[in-house]
Fold these 4 entries.
Entry 1:
Amino acid sequence: MNPDRPDDGALPAVSDFWSALSRTTRARIGLGRSGDALPTRRVLELRTDHAAARDAVHTVLDVPRLQADLQTDSGGGAAPVVHSAAGSRGEYLRRPDLGRRLAPDTVLPRQDADLAVVLADGLSPTALQRHGAPLLGALRRAAAGRLRLATPVIALQARVALGDRVAELLGTPAVVVLIGERPGLTTSDSLGAYLTHAPGLGTTDADRNCVSNIHPPEGLEYAVAAETVVRLALCARQLGRSGVDLKADVGLDALPGNGPSVLDAPLGRD
Amino acid sequence: MRYSSIIRGQSHEFDGLVELLAKASPRRSGDELAGCAAVSETERTAAQWALADVPLADFLTEDVVPSDTDEVTRLILDGHDRAAFAPVSSLTVGGFRDWLLATATRPDAAGTLAGLAPGLTPEMVAAVSKLMRNQDLIAVSRAVQMTTAFRTTIGGAGRLATRLQPNHVTDDATGVAAAVLDGLLLGCGDAVIGINPASDSPATTRRLLELLDQVRTRYDIPCQTCVLTHVTTTLQLIEQGAPVDLVFQSIAGTQAANRSFGIDLALLAEAHDAGRSLGRGTVGQHVMYFETGQGSALSAGAHLGVGGRPVDQQTLETRAYAVARAFDPLLVNTVVGFIGPEYLADAKQITRAGLEDNCCGKLLGLPMGVDVCYTNHADADADDMDDLAVLLAVAGTDFVITVPGGDDVMLGYQSLSFHDALFLRRSLGLRPAPEFERWLLRMGLLAEDGSVLEIDPRRSGLSELTA
């Protein structure tokens, strides 16, 4: 059976009925039956999608390649790398609190910039590997003449709140974290961008703004995501805070991708 | 109160029920995250030895979560039925395990356990479950037989109901209807046809409620429908005359966690009254539908008990069942693998938690179901869900969640499929809710042996459902 040819594997004729309905939903309807069970093709499809999601979670980020991609796109030296306090992937998954803290003795040079940029592996290193560099490029173009971006920092075994600690070390007044989102069965390479103004120890998820689902061509385009982040950052600077209030005050609800995300939930409060 | 035990010459001490319960808990990542888990397997068994000697009556005098600051604790203590408690009032936790397992083998087990339920507190039930092996949890929970009803009857011997969960990423009406059709043709939906809406707006909720109500009335399906939105939205929609069958709400085991959900007991009472006032049930008037899950209190930072110590997540989960039973629910289900590996790390932990929740809920007298599910960052897969589903079906769980192909495209996790329900029912000789089963027969969807026929949807009489 060829996984890319839905007609290969001879399903019964009723599938015409379901294929028309399948255009109305991504749900796996009308899968057919082998006795009470799913047909072989359907079982293999589900297993393949789950495998891709599992691999996306557990793939190790190729740091030198990402650093090279970032340089190709924007010039400058290799992006510095920081680690969270989580010692392994297993510990990272079970202990979100460690993923929010920097490893002891982490140092970063202070920078005179408006916005720190953290490229975090999160729950999908695959997403960061694929979309990190082009999204950063789009962000640089969108920010030109409007916001001074700090040199990007790559963060490993990182949760969103690790960005707060990075911004404190860099001395920037705001931070955007570009982070791999929890893989689903249909999409395993989606990036999210989390903006936080004046991050500190008391910062909660309610103080952040999120642009999620960045994974062209199916998901949000880089340029749209980057423009949204820059507008959010400018509005936050004007308002003096990011988060729930920002959305309500500047009417950004209608922007694509500016919705809630399941990433890091539900323990993201600290 | 201090508790202690001596294991192989070494003494172990535990400061109060909070620490004792936490350290006696089978290992799970959420308790390690909270910092209350046993530090070694030996300490865990030491705590279990000490817990086995604690008199059940002690749970009526020593708080786990302080009663002066937590209304759930006050609900538990004020609602305790001393007469119902009498048969076990002199037992220790260990003695209670023995009593339950002996009772479960007797012909009058169902009546005895139903009579006992109002005399049990969640802490007693959580405590005894920590001493139980998985087979004990199964043996005891399958001995509990009770029913609730609205348009179908949930529970009872030999029945396994299903929630048909036709979620859609944009709440598209045709897309939802297509998933409903798929589920009905595979014999699912007898517990509830229930949508998690992608949008939280009252207008969307109302539109989906009306869609489901039209499908139900058009085909005269004996079932209840629900759009799982916040209880305040449902209250508002009841006031506006929307067709609300069941009132849904997520609940947790502490006042603070419930506050993080935007609810308290008074609000639930108001919602319960409003739901019942509609009188829409035909074979019963149980109108509440609750969801719970181990780890919800910790995720809200609302998991602390006496002395500011973290309470283990399974004890807190069982306390949520005390909230549920105060409002005579039609359905309660634990969403066991949804919350992620920081609470239940892998299939072993998810399996254990599913069996605990099913057993503890049923012992407290609840109509208990399980969302047998996992996320992509937990160490679990479809084979593990097969295992847990079979264990739960043997354990007499009242219903399971089912989604097309086992893949919930809106919530982004995997649950059981409609096909899995066919497998469970045939393998274990379980049948749908009686009213729904008669409807399936009337619609020509059932074979003589009670199994669901595979028929062309265009000739099913239901195909217009998506038109």
Entry 2:
Amino acid sequence: MTMLTAMCAIFAITILVIILAYIAVRGVSAINIEFLIDTPKPVGEGGGIGNAILGSALMTLLATAIGLPIGIGAGVYLAEFGDNWFGNTVRFLADTLIGVPSIIVGIFVYTIVVLPMSRQSGFAGALSLAIIMIPIVARTTEEMIRLVPKSMREGALALGAPQWRVTWNIVMPAAASGIATGAMLSIARISGETAPLLFTALNSRFYNYFFDQPMASLTVQIYNYATGPFEIEHQMAWAATLILVGLILFINIVVRFLTKKKY
Amino acid sequence: MAKTGTFADSLFKGVLTVFAATIILVVVAMIAMMFWNSLPTIREFGLGFLVGSDWQPASDVYGALPFIYGTIVSSVIALILAVPVSLGIAIFLVEQAPKSIASPIAFMVELLAAIPSVVYGLWGIFVLAPFIRNYLGPILQNYLGWLPLFQGRLTGIGMLTGGVIMAIMVTPIITAVVRDVLEVVPNTQRDAALALGATKWETTLIVLENASSGIAGAVVLGLGRALGETMAVTMVIGNAPQISASLFEPAYTIASVLAANFAEATDRLYLSALIEMGLVLFLVTFVVNAAAKVLVMGVAKGTNAARQA
């Protein structure tokens, strides 16, 4: 029976290797500097993903700026004060929110931002990503803070520190590296999101630095290129995927390396 | 000193409470806004919306049944394929493999979950779909072609391809939860079984039995993910609102009709119909995820109690 279970594991790894190999081989052959800085052009005239990379970076940045403080704050609340009905409700809803399809978040943001503004915008895209990020960050932060030994809190309280100083100056620094790895993984997660951006940020053919305008993103660009009719578009989809997956794998491997030292 | 401390304390706690409350607010607002914006179709069609099988936005006829059917069937295909493999991987990692092998393998399986959905879609279009069209499909038709499931024209794009790509995507999620569940089964149970003369495999079966509600939770969690899987499925399932017995035929899921049509839905009733389907998907995944959580918690709590006893 060990043979059979081992084969399951080998099977999964084989699929991973096949996927990564396709991305590497087909992506590398289509990638060059112009592709990385150019904007999309009509088929046959080259073009690139420069504006999509910028759009993804801007939206991820804004999403992180919104989602990270709220997520960390909620996580600290859950760990330090959350053993009551309110905390349990938040915890339960955070867990279920993590499992809600990301496209639903896109619809929600569409109804509260895009409809009132009557146009798609980079802000709407970033807000969707932030909402996806908040429950993930909250739950990992809570777990990390719960790992901090009680004796540290008691020691600080015994020295006369008020509760908020204990949490802010003792507990949170002790859990900082764990919170940071959780944050990095959540950034990796949102940078691969496509569905919530499709009708919130929409897309754009130009470099756009303003959050009140539709914004291109790497993932939506991959979707458009992949489902387009021309071979040249497919090549660009693979090249853009190489950039995206490279970034996400890099973050995951760094996190793995950082956390491995501790355990 | 004590007084400033208490003021600062309540301020600090107050700010954190607001952050935590944001999560409740988001969920409540989600349900409210989606319900509000789907009122036009709820008023117009009532429950008929969910059982109607005609979908013609051009003439304002909206029935969600083909999408509900496609969502359920593709998810079932995904689970049939993913559950045995996930169980196998988890058993291998927790019960059989030495730690030096288990840890890198576990990491690689987790990486499967880190790959974005749209990338699976790209790979699905250009690698998996041709593979199913040229190799897997003909084999299935050869041996099981007498079943209505495997009849019809093979294009590589359709329900089966959607189910297979979903299976790959939920495997790491089910595996991770089953691993956690198996790891909380106390070692005393394994020792006791071995001491009574059980073989290693019989011991594993006993462990599985004790973890069964947690494993059920893992499967339900995988179901929740499969139901809501969007981009990859949209790219390979064919996007045709039809109910067909054949798994080779194109189909449509709720999530993929949203992804493919939402941006261009400007008509009030059309938008409302899409949002109502979003609401249905939201409520279903919400309940499924909650059920999974209850099942997994049951195991974890039980073993903690057992440890303390």
Entry 3:
Amino acid sequence: MTLHTELFFKLKVLKSVFKRNLGLLALIKDMRNTFNSELSVISVDNQLLYGTATNLPFTFELSDNHTTYATLCFDKPEAKLIGEVIQLVLQKELEKKNIANEVLGLYREINMIYNFSEKISEKIDNVSIAQTALEEAQQIIDITHGSVFILDANNDKVLQMARLGHNPNPEKSIANQNPILKQLILKGTSLVVPKAAIEANSALNHLKAVMYAPLKVKHRTLGLIVLGNEREKEFTAAELKLLTTIALQSASAIESAQLYQKGLKESREREESIMKVHKASQKFVPHQFIKSLGKDKLTEVALGDQVEREVTVLFVDIRGFTTLSENMSPTENFYFINAFNKRMGPIIRNNEGFIMQYLGDGFMAIFPNGAQHALNASIAMQKDLKTYNNQRKVKNRKPVKIGVGMQNGRLIMGITGDIERMDAAIISDTVNTAARIEGLSKYFGSNILLTDLCMKNLSDASKFNFRFLGPVKVQGKLNPIDLYECIDGDEPNLLKHKLNTLKLFKKGMDLYFNKEFAMAAVTFQKIFKKHTDDLPAKLFLNKSAHLITQEIGNDWQGIALVDTK
Amino acid sequence: MSKKLLIVDDESHIRMLIEQTLEDLEDNGVELLFAENGEQALQIITTEEPDLVFLDVMMPKMSGMEVCYKVKKEMNLNKVYIILLTAKGQEVDRQKGLEMGADRYMTKPFDPDEMLDIASTILNA
């Protein structure tokens, strides 16, 4: 406290005593009566604090440490005693005030620390904790500058987390004095830096006072808080203690933040690796399969989970695979199959299907949402093969042809196996039939074959073009199945031909089933002559021609008996 | 007319600390009044109708809550702004105090700067 403010403070206390200390006023009154003396008290700033009379013969200087703050005037010499009493009371009052000020200072600190803890407990990153620490420090300590430094995890580099105040020479910042900072951090003590040391460090030249405290957690020091003031001042022990308190609070907050971030990072990594496994598992057990079971993740699926529903089962087979792979090494063969599957997989998925199983030279796919998706996929696959074959032609490779067959029916999808080894499985007769239908595509020379059950399952059959190929009795099945050829996947000129002869083909089939084989043969001959790639026409031409000379029983229904496997 | 501020606490040293915190207001024409229990407080509030009261909750005889209830709910002296002083962490007191009609609450040990700020704002002094 400077001399002036000290006097000001004393005058204030004195005035308040004369205003409020009723006990003292009563005592003065009693003593005045006893001594029978006039009395007045005049402060050094010329205010009459007590009494009315002036020009009294005696005076007594009310003073403290040689500083006079008021004058007592009286007219009986004994009344000097009153002055001594006032002086004593004032002294006690000042002591009381000083203690109260100390206590209020402590209250201030308690509240600062409380607020600070509350504030930083919400923070989870080091930078904002450091910033808050500096802001709070500025609230309660007279500073113009500050920095928070943290030693990185390898105890290698010191990083500046937050800064306060303007540095006139940024290139000379203490943030650049890594070795010194590191040394201070590892030392782990707090200090008011001596003037000489401040002057000796060019990075601190702009400051008149500097102190620092370590960010300490248990026996570890995480970093350092440095505070400074560019104005002339000296940091007190109390201020250093406050800084140390802030530093301790910050340190534990920073440590929790670091642990939190670490935990967050770890859990993120864990989640990522789980996602990777999840994604990988999807490749083995299609997500749609799991979804069909009413589950979201493979991990949720349990042994025995199952669902029964109507689906379209589609079989794809590479025609003449044996011939095709004859001249390939096993590795080349594997690459070829992979290249093929890589092209077909996305087409299946894009049409709401999933590949249930790869079968070497083909695959089985399932379409849970309608046969039209299976048909669209089939047509798209046939078209894609044309592009693929053009590429193969350039490399002098044989073209690839596929046969597609499908059947609709109810099917159970489920998880089978035992607790140690599980697999996604489908159980249904539909699968067998679909495989047989695919096998028939070779016999009929059709690209895409489907059954009447598939036809019934189409959302809009008019979007496609079909030719009826008659009933077929496949192996292992009692009842014949009506078979259709979808022509939309055929090469453009073959498709055009088939479209142009649709009616004629139907006429041929009618004649055939009416046992008018000669007429039928003529009709199919007409069609076949127009396009010699029309293999079903060729087949029925041969069949009709053959039957002309055959004895046909009454029970003949034109059911084709084909041994596909 | 000068503004009046009443400080109510049964502990004399707390009264003194609040007085010391708020004494600068006297320079701006605010009169500081004191009461050391609930009954005395109620009497002063009735006669003086202070603009602002710092009212301790924990007092013998009549608690701050009771005083608050009588002033705000029974006497309807709504222009008397009451700030309850509760111990830190007594959130129950806080809720109850607001139900009793207190305008706001502060925790003890109070932040002197905050107390002076609030008082100056309310008294416009």
Entry 4:
Amino acid sequence: MDDQMVRFTGREIISAPAVPGTSFLKIRYLDSPLMVDIEYIRHLTDSHKLTDGLEVQLRRATDHAYALSHMTPVIHEGDQIAGNKTRFIRGAIPYVNYAASPFLKEMRKEEQDAQSKHSDQGMGGGIARTISEAEQGGLRLISGKFLISKNDYEEFKDICGYWEDKCFMEQGDRLWKNHFAKADFIENGWKIGLYTAPHEPCPEGRLILDYETALGKGYNEIIRETEAKINSFVPEKLTASSKLLFWKAAVIVLKGAAAFTSNYAAEAEKLAANENDPLRKAELELMAETCLRVPLEPPRNFREAVQAFWFTYLLGHIEGSHLGFSPGRLDMLLWPYFKNDPEITVEKAIPLFEELFVKMTQIEYIASLSWQGLGHGNLYQNLILGGVDEKGEPVNNPVSMAILQAQINMQMTQPTLSVWWDEKLDQEFLMKAAECIKTGVGYPAFFNQSTYIAHELETSGLPVELIRKHAAIGGCTEPTLQGMSYGIVQAGFVNHGKLIDLVLNQGIDPYTGIRMFESRNPQTYEEVRSYYLEMMHYAVRNWQQYWNYVMIAHRNTVPLIFCSVFVRDCLGEGKCMDDGGALSNNSITTLSSGMVNVANSLAVIKKLCFDDMICSLGELFHAVSENWEGYEMLRKKALAVPHWGNDQAYADDIFLGLFDEYCSWVKGQNNYLGVPYDPSMLAISTPVPFGKVCNAFPDGRMKGEPLADGVTSPFPGSDVCGPTAVIRSSSKVDHRKIRGGLLNLKFHPSALKGETGSKNLLALIKTYFEKPGFHVQFNVVDSRMLKDAQLNPENYRDLVVRVAGFSAYWVEMSKALQDQVIWRTEHSL
Amino acid sequence: MRGIIINIQHYAVHDGPGIRTLVFFKGCTMNCAWCSNPESQSPGLQLRYIAYRCKLCLKCVSACTNTAVSLNDGHLGHSFDLCNDCESRTCIDNCSYDAVTLTGKDISSDELLGIISADISFYTNSGGGVTFSGGEPFAQPEFLVEILQKCKSHGIHTAVETCGWASEKAFREALPYTDLFLFDLKIINPESHIEFTGKPVDLILSNLAMLTSLKANIIIRVPLIPGITDSKENLEAIAKIMHQNQLKQIDLMPYHNLGEDKYQEHGMKYSLDQLKPGDSRQNIAVRDYFLAQGFICEIF
């Protein structure tokens, strides 16, 4: 053993890019600073100034098409696949048409929203480089971690000024702040950390387009079909006349898209003409030929299919300020092209996927500081493999294997890989997935397809064949129907931990002194529990209603047109998604974080104050308000009460009761498209900022510590009966009731060693999903290695770890989030 | 009936096939110098003092009815003999920081069975089961046989990890309910065996031969203790015994000193405190030797 091995156990699977070309792309990515590119928004703004008076769909389509056709086609050295979101290697488009105020506040040095100070961003890696380069002159730092040239900065200021009163956020604010009766509650909720910060800067996403139709027909055919509809349209009902507007908008936006891809064909041709290296010349000529063909016409081979997919994906990505815009079931999409292409092999496909994944990771987003912190720079692009097709037959194929191998080789943070688990999947494929987990990157996450199918059957009532085929994950852990579902556009998260603070303090936030609820003086366990439920009901309902107001403004300012073209059945219905054109509109969720802490706290209250009568409610609440100082013995007793995640009915039953209450309450409100909100729980990085604004809890948690993450993950350190008990607890939850869920398990690398280790891991997943669970993901890392990485970041530039529904580069994570991952990991086997 | 265990580990994957539950019995029939679980040697409950958790609040000092704990030079000192015999253990109840704890738990076979059988679906899907380890499970032979019987009646795969030093009768009684023995061979030379383990080796070898003759399923386990068990002569002697008994598989357990703190925490003395873990290349060479002898061999 060398010295390092003595100190910690390294990762079992270590791999490298398949070819020098992709190795170059990865290194280039890791060395690139984060840039803001204002080109798209400049063109969009120029057009917007000229389109005043146009109906909103037509205006949005015209502006977007104008910007698409004027963007610079950028082909970087070594690129084999054409198309970039910005001109930079790591670049972000500032969508000030969505929200200008976060930028204006920064420029005017005004105070940001209350939560920006609780949401830390990472500062290492490429971000550190950003800052050092900014200081060397010519560039300015913006939004904490991005660079912008000084000229662009001045122009950007003007652009922001233009959008200040026109952007989606401002239009939304005017509506709900003036008309929504509970507006004060929402604003106070932000001040005290009851809710995540306003989501308008990056609301879109958890959306997967209908790539099957995009590739199968080609844009030209879709344009022809739509023009035929326009030409034969007779308005026989006044309300139907809006169809014409959407169809016209669709044609405009598709033609803009065609200009965008044709510009790439021309650029590749130009570069090829000037290229001396015959090898590169041939590559560029092939690229030019490919871009001339797709996506306007259907792909003729595998490479063209990959390029057509990427263009469509990119064009959808450019249109909106997305988080969780996802490729979906790429192995299913590309399999027919792979199968029918005599030239392609798994070995040849791997470098293409490697490049594709670098391209996906190169997309950055810039939004409010709070959401940059909450999302932690992650775009939640979810690529899900395996599962079953419409007939219920397993989908895994050689493309699935190539995709897994590409990410084993590259270990990029994007896309995050997932597997739809089904008992019929091939063992070879599952073992490859286990191998990928053992790299330590934290993906693939496993999802149980049958659980989601049951959920979707119940909520949407669509045929089971359709659900099977289109089931995918949009974003971190939320299932949706690809190509036919309105994205999962929600207001953000409700912090259940903050509700504990409020219950303990008679409705007043202990930090700000703001009164949120009427005072109560609960005397019994039941009274404490109902006080919480009363608060939860009110907080959830207001949050839903507020968002319904906001989304009216969305429809009136930034309806998605390009994306709607590729969501069934918007074109058929003649309605964009904002008007309810998608086949499924029940994907709009209400999100929560921290319920495990509520259940644990209630368990402690019940046991110590009522069952065992060790102390009075008042004494317990007082001890908690003192952050347990001077009450260490009481805290020890609180920690000894069964907590969630040990398969002990005492706490588990309390959690299950709350879960059911939550699910049924959420469904009691219709969303802005007229169908009930769908309950969901997940985490992203919320446990850290949510925990930071909360006092100690009765469950033994100390002031400021992160909350329990995900839906069913136990609070770190409170799962004293091992992972099988965590799984037994978690499987008591009826996962069919919610859209999404999250269980983190952590393993020391030695627990999964070798083929036997992989098989045991797969047996664990199978056991959980037979119960049936919904989601599980794994961190396979020695906490001592992470501590070493904190001390010596320079040795860990490409270390990727799992956070919540996403993986991140260690060095680009904030210290607080790193600490949380170490904390979690220390309790591993 | 009731037995004393130290703890139960779930999702154990290194002690028998598949996903297993590992139950550590308290009490051992031998006294190996390198023991990494010193708290497993004594059969009774033991006090443990974990110094790094202690905030020196001294509540235990005032609570102690035996004056068995005192403050000397800024450190707490315990008279562990008194503590281990103490029945009231007020020090534990008065410690807010879990710095004083009790090692060992008295448990009924039914309660233990309940914990083991909760994971049956994991065993089924992985080909796993339960492994009884320790300490020495055969230090509590009646309890062991009872829990083995109960597990078998629930269809659970059972393994027993043993040092081999127990009565032949106990092995015969356990055999019908034991699917796998993880059988330790440490030192074959009789004098050295007594020197380092405190017990003669002949009973171990005769038990092994008896189990082999009764067609028990056996994997040999050898702790690789530098300078003690890893000599050429000893390893050759082990290989020879394996050939004689027609055994196929051997697990190598490299020495580690991670248990050292536990000696102090239980008021015990570690005699090998100068010993460093072996060289991994050396361990690989040992594995290669057993592979060359035709055995299945893995380093754990």
